[in-house]
Specification:
The protein is mainly beta and 99 residues long. Helices cover 14% and strands 46% of the residues. It has 1 helix and 6 strands. A 6-stranded antiparallel beta barrel has the order 1-2-3-6-5-4. The mean pLDDT is 84.
Amino acid sequence: RQRQMCIRDSSLLGHVVDISEDGLMIMSETPIELNRDFDLGLEMPSSHKGDNRKITLKAHSVWQSSDANPELIDTGFQLINPDQSSIEVIKELIEELQF
């Protein structure tokens, strides 16, 4: 079962479909403004029931394209100076979810 990671700015922006130490791709139902900095809250389900992990990332929206599903939009973000603890969580996610 795939775990969904939600990204929030002031409201739900979308779901993470790819992540690296440098950036992430979000799939959303509505377009996300390009060339803008965002303070993103990444909520990740844990294998322990009711124990969600959350990190905050500053990211810049750099590109957008149509998803394979025509009702969805993919947006690419470049991370802006992530702190070491956030990078460690991202590394764990890559290992755990095999991004």
